[in-house]
Write a structure and sequence with these properties.
The complex is a heterodimer of chains A (135) and B (112). With 135 residues, chain A is an alpha/beta fold. Chain A is built from 3 helices and 7 strands, in the order βαββαβββαβ. Helices cover 48% and strands 7% of the residues of chain B. Classes of the chains: A alpha/beta (135), B mainly alpha (112). At the A-B interface, α1 of A face α2 and α3 of B.
């Protein structure tokens, strides 16, 4: 079997108003079938995608933020969030929704998927990837 | 071919593959009719899968891919029901696709 590739999906746009965030999520879900080493990155306005307590009723759009919580089941378990992007928008990691995955190796213990990183760490992370898809 | 399901007073549009256009109009009578067009007679075992999928959709806003359905069914109902063969016996044309259609959910993302 071919060796796994490192895939990074970079999310830079706010969740609603454009179709980018939702389309990125669709691509992640489809790509999950190929069992690669998948990471997600959230920077710039992309950090808003992970905000807790989203309510899309007034916008008549599907609140797809809850779908992020299913990604652990698809073996998508690394959500890198850039600290500087949060700070520039007056946010902290505590403003984000809790996203966890179940670790089969440790009796399905729930572990956090969100990994806060600095801008420099994010740059290094992007440099390590085989495939980078930016939305 | 008609692109509508009709049960009593309810008329529900569907797409060319039989998925409801407006998933909010779904009810259990409609499920029976969709199942009939799929040549499936719904048993309690079928309902178990359909109800599970609807709960999953309610929580995560997506229909799960088949391998996720198998994994989650195993967690909830045990290995006999969290089994691909068992699910295909209930829904021969693909449990995720067919059960979602009967359950009034969109076609699962990632179902190729």
């Amino acid at each position: 079997m071919a060796q796994k590739k490192k895939f990074l999906y970079v999310n830079r746009k706010a969740p609603y108003g454009t179709i980018y965030a939702l389309e990125a999520l669709e691509v992640v879900l489809i790509g999950a079938a190929f069992e690669q080493d998948v990471s997600l990155a959230f920077l710039d306005d992309g950090v808003f995608q992970l905000m807790a307590g989203q309510d899309t009723a007034a916008a008549s759009m599907k609140n797809f933020s809850r779908t992020f919580k299913a990604l652990g089941d698809y073996d998508v378990r690394k959500f890198y969030v850039e600290r500087e992007s949060l700070a520039e928008r007056g946010l902290t990691v505590e403003d984000l929704m809790p996203i966890t995955y179940e670790d089969e190796a440790e009796d399905y213990a729930e572990k956090p998927s969100i990994i806060p990183v600095s801008r420099a760490e994010m740059a290094a992370l992007i440099a390590q990837q085989d495939v980078v898809l930016s939305f | 071919m008609s692109m509508q399901y009709k049960v009593g007073d309810i008329v529900a549009d569907h797409d060319e593959e039989g998925y409801l256009t407006d998933i909010t109009v779904w009810n259990r009578d409609l499920a029976l009719l969709i199942a009939k067009t799929e040549n499936i007679e719904l048993t309690p075992e079928h309902w178990e899968v359909i109800d599970f999928l609807r709960e999953y959709y309610e929580e995560y806003q997506i229909a799960p891919a088949i391998r996720i359905l198998v994994k989650e069914m195993k967690k909830k109902f045990g290995p006999d029901k969290g089994d691909q063969k068992y699910l295909y016996e209930l829904f021969p044309y693909g449990p995720a696709k067919q059960a979602c259609k009967i359950g009034g959910l969109p076609k699962p993302t990632g179902c190729i």
